[in-house]
Hints:
Layout: E1 9-10, E2 19-29, E3 35-45, E4 56-59, E5 65-71, E6 74-75, E7 82-84, E8 87-90, E9 96-105, E10 115-119, E11 122-126, E12 146-155, E13 161-164, E14 167-174, E15 177-188, E16 195-198, E17 201-208, E18 214-221, H1 230-247, E19 255-261, E20 268-269, E21 274-278, H2 291-306, E22 315-316, H3 322-340, H4 343-362, E23 374-375, H5 384-401, H6 403-417, E24 421-422, H7 424-435, H8 444-447, E25 453-461, E26 466-474, E27 489-496, E28 512-516, E29 520-525, E30 533-536, E31 545-547, H9 552-561, H10 565-588, H11 597-607, H12 614-620, H13 626-632, H14 638-655, H15 657-666, H16 677-695, H17 699-711, H18 715-726, H19 731-745, H20 749-760, H21 767-775, H22 785-798, H23 800-803, H24 809-824, H25 826-832, H26 834-837, H27 844-858, H28 865-876
Parallel strand pairs: 2-12, 18-19, 19-21, 22-24, 25-31
Antiparallel strand pairs: 1-23, 2-3, 3-9, 4-8, 5-6, 5-9, 7-8, 10-11, 11-16, 12-15, 13-16, 14-15, 17-18, 20-21, 25-26, 26-29, 27-28, 27-30
Helix pairs in contact: 1-2, 2-3, 3-4, 3-5, 4-5, 4-10, 4-13, 5-6, 6-7, 9-10, 10-14, 12-16, 14-16, 15-16, 16-18, 17-18, 19-20, 20-22, 24-25, 24-27, 25-28, 27-28
The structure holds ligand BES and zinc ion.
Amino acid sequence: MTQPQPNEIYLKDYQVPAYLIETTALRFELGEEVTRVIADLKVSRNPECQQSKPGLQLDGHPDLVLEELSVDGRCLSAEEYQRDGEQLIIADVPASFELHCVTVIEPQNNTALEGLYKSDGMFCTQCEAEGFRRITFYPDRPDVMSVFETTVVADKAAYPVLLSNGNAVERGEEGDVHWVRWQDPFPKPAYLFALVAGDLKYIEDSFTTMSGREVKLQIFAEAKDLDKLDYGMASLKKSMRWDEEVYGREYDLDIFMVVAVDFFNMGAMENKGLNIFNTSCVLAHPATTVDAGFQRVEAVVAHEYFHNWSGNRVTCRDWFQLSLKEGFTVFRDSEFSADMNSRTVKRVEDVSLLRTAQFAEDAGPMAHPVRPASFIEISNFYTLTVYEKGCEVVRMIHTLLGAEEFRKGSDLYFDRHDGQAVTTDDFVKAMEDASGRDLTQFRRWYSQAGTPVIEASGSYDAAAKRFSLTLRQSCPATPDMAEKQPFHIPVAVGLLTPQGQDYLLGNGATTQVLDFTEAEQVFHFDNIDAAPVPSLLRSFSAPVKLSYPYSREERMFLMQHDSDGFNRWDASQQLAVEIMQGLIEDHQAGKELQVPEQLITAYRTVLGDDSLDKAMVSKILTLPSQAYLSELAEVIDVEAIHAVRKFVRNSLANTLESLWQDVYQANLSDEAYSPDADSIARRSLKNLALAYLLATAKDEYLQFALRQYDAADNMTDQQASLTLVAHSEFTDAADELLDRFYAAWKDEALVVNQWLSVQASAPAEGALKRVEALLEHPAYDAKNPNKIRSLVGAFCGQNPVNFHHQDGSGYAFLADQIIMLNKQNPQIASRLLGPLTRWKKYAPARQQQMRAELERIKASGELSKDVFEVLTKSLAV
Ligand code: BES
Ligand code: ZN
């Protein structure tokens, strides 16, 4: 089957819009069969556009039914406009006029969950990035900003709550129908438009801003979830205060609303004054939500709230600039979480994600710069590179400038560009202008893809008391670019005395940030009395792969003495990585495995060190993940990595058994559940100890786990037990516990999702059979992204041994799912493709199987732009 090749869009082709929309008045007549959208736009020529007499170009999805189109009150005949694919063009229009447009849509049949759709009987919208064009014809691009007024009309009984952006200014009713009119005084692009209508309940609170204005805060959900909203509200208030204190940014409307919906492609969305959240990112209750879930809610609520300034008041000129708002806002939410909880733990978590998933993306067929140069479907570029690497790029600016100059830069940025749609370059320029620093070379972080590699080496001259550090940088080729120019890399360095103290460095401090800008550079440190152990890239000061020829003893020394908490953890990780890489080779060579004494000693030392923060202890004692070891491997040997991890885990479990017991007992608690950082750390250490105990496969520890399951007053402890038992060799106990868990929680959708994930990620043989059976289970819904992610996503992403089964069944399963989802929900289909696109990292037999499935998807029929782009790019390399 041939299909028209979708076009690639290029940043270099950017042109200012020919027309601007001063005001947008929308009227939604919501119905069960059809919904009518009446749009009245005040349109005028953009004085900045050079074209003479341009036509008006509107975006509109092919499914839109156009009922009426008029200019200044005169109905256009079919000859006066042209519909072509996703566009509607009116060739002949005055310099300024009123456009009236009526479209008819069917939200109840919208399975893509873009535009206006229904989630559990309620109407809701998702317009970023290009969803507004599924509602009406409009210049659906972020540099067209307009003042919106929205009237929502619906059945009073079925949809008692009617919401949109801004303030409710008028309401009324007539018979069975009622309506509410909303006005948003802040000009915004269409992607920030939102509407919600449904039978919703809410909690309410208020916040007094730093200038003394009172803001009403409301969080809406279905009645059954009303008891799960308090934590989101508390998180919102903390976020509002933090943005005032750290960035001087105040909220700007009289009301801020959040709505929880169960059908949502992403985590949450920052629509002006009306954020819409996936239930998984806002509902939280001790009985149903695990610790990581609480922390996720806090972070996502903060993230979407922070967008009010970094995204909404100052928005993106075009979608190539996506990281302008996402990278910056991830940096803001990450710093917020660091301030609310443990800074070091947060850094460890962020870096782990970056090193496993973002580095893999940077090394794969979809590699792209933080500011991509082209795309076919923008939805494919909401990536770890744009988000997490984008965050690291902002963090590096913060590191180079220091907190104070960075704040001057952000003040200047918000001030200079308030109400505008701008570029990442404008952001960097504001940072330069406020600080006086030259960031010309630094800008390469936005335009060059790939993960830079730094090779470091040191030498000590005892006579001169000088330590010299040589750094060499390179960056691998990516599909878009073969040759890379050197990056401006901030390398934070400390030097440790033989006693484990920090030397004072030339800058008078214990850490110095080096400006590493050349392909190769030597840095000298003077007045160093004895050969130091360098602590490099402290706090992970740049998103790079750095290697230094440390001995195992030096790594153990850093683990114990480094004043940088992140590097203490990293020393432990790298020690374990090095050891496990050796064992993987042994395994491949058929040698008998043995865990080197150093790792056991390191573990024993950490277990005996009372001075360490519990959260850090549990991070240090967690072995490098399968995903991280895979990313580091030249060729991924799924079975070998899995076998070695299991072997090392079991050895540590058996050798240190009594210590694990002590840790487990010492961290039991009968205090009421609280999701504060200390309690979370205690639970994570306790459940890590339980995991090691279960790895001994002794029946007595199964009893520990079952007792904990029964005694738990919170989901964290209950789910930890469930997962450990379900993933253990105690298969009968596992089945029984899974049944009990489902029976107890079958009415809690988010808990059922966890139940699906636990089964989908179980490493034992036969997981695919189970997953296939669960597709037919009443708990599953093939139209709900959360269910798809919990079952299909978890199987393909968190069950390497079964997904990569020799017989290829895992690949075929995923391909079938993608073929089915391609039509129904292209965004989800395309995201699920991820694991198959990495075929190049596997041995030839697997490469062939994976490619064959990609080819099968390609031949399966008409592909969405989303799937087409990922598929063709991953087959092209
Ligand atoms: N603007 C995005 C949500 C979005 C992305 C909508 C792509 C439509 C298409 C939002 O601000 C966001 O980034 N959400 C993240 C969570 C956040 C904490 C990083 C998400 O949804 O995963
Ligand atoms: Zn965001």
